[in-house]
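S1.2 Input.
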Amino acid sequence: MATRLKAARDGPDWQRRLAEAVAGEVAFDPFTLGRYATDASSYQIMPAAVVIARDAEDVHATLAVAREAGVSVTPRGAGTSQCGQTVNDGIIVDTTRHMNNIVSVDAEAERCVVEPGVVLDELNRALAPTGLWFPVDISTSSRATIGGMAGNNACGGRSLRYGTMRDNVEAIDAVLADGTALRFGEVEPGTLRDSGEGPVLARDLLAIGKREADEVAKRFPKVQRRVGGYNLDALAPAGSNNLAHLLVGSEGTLAFSTNIELRLATRIGPKVMGVCHFGSFHAAVDAARHLVGLGPIALELIDRTMIALGRDIPLYRDTINRIVRGDPAALLIAEFAEDEHENRRRLKALAERMDELGIAWDHSGDHWGGVVPLIEPETQAALTEVRKSGLNIMMSMKEQGKPVSFVEDCAVPLEHLAEYTERLTALFEKHGTTGTWYAHAAVGCLHVRPILNLKLEHDLKAVRAIAEEAFALVRDYKGSHSG
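S1.3 Output.
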């Protein structure tokens, strides 16, 4: 405490008050602030203070000081966000060190309550003896926190079956900027009273939802991967009327979550994969809408660039050489998780569907390709590891230009995905570059990154131009781009 107060004396008076009020760690030194000035995005903003909160009381204390001083507060999990959601110039509150407890598990009801700093993989390891898991299985699961996932409305590779974070959050205990602690969950409009801050807030929010229902219905994108902007549709009369769904995806701007109640699922049983090879990228993207009808729990796309870069990395080389046949322009990885008989039937149907699309091993050009079945769990796990490491693989490019994240996670209706990628490719070429691609193809969501050298003035200017033109394309298709 003495060291903390000494550092605070050199700054504004609110820093001293913050150091005295918080039981957890508080830092003002340049080294610590510098560590929290960046996340996985291209942004860098130096905060004024970092609080490593010990519990909800520290959250209340931090908000009280910040409110009086007029300083912003930003909740932070692992900092895996691609859009700068966890950097700011005010107080950064880290929940990963102490606020990382599993509060309760109700296996019979398939529910659990966790603090925001719980890491997804650690939660699922703890749930393993119950036969349950939390199914929003994002690629950063080894470090991403539940609080961050809720803030960003994370989705994961199996959202085709399990939905997004919004679909799997039941309720959230949170603190408003004015210090009010409320439980956000499903409400019955007819039961709301005019007394108490919670009921009044719920009533007012549902009134907004009713007032704007027609506008929401007309303008909100009809895609599953709509994760940008507030979930106002949850408040509409036809919505879930679950106020927690308004907090999900709000990126910590509406309230500070202290406990999150999650919906769990039975663990996936036997799985098989069909690795669909394509002679052209367009053929792969266009095939997604035809393959999704076979009922995969995931349909993931990776392009030739990722395959080639992976082959240059010893950790992934053997897996890629064992699974990938020839030199495909792209792969679609279809995953099925039914019983053993049904899995094999769907693999057979997958091969038949590829044949119906005119794609076969003995063809050439755009029509070359086929299916490599993966039955063994070890081989499936190895390929999944390659897919989850897509970002790291892409960043291993040895040239000066690197894949830059700023139009990532755009989603369009699946029937437009192929045309959208063609137009986006032409856009990149217009600005003198190409893109790297991997995707949650089943839900029309692309992880696309233009290759740019941000040390060059031309490429720096291209960032804004590409972003504006890419988002205009997304709007053309009534799609959504990440916040």
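S1.4 Remarks. The mean pLDDT is 92.
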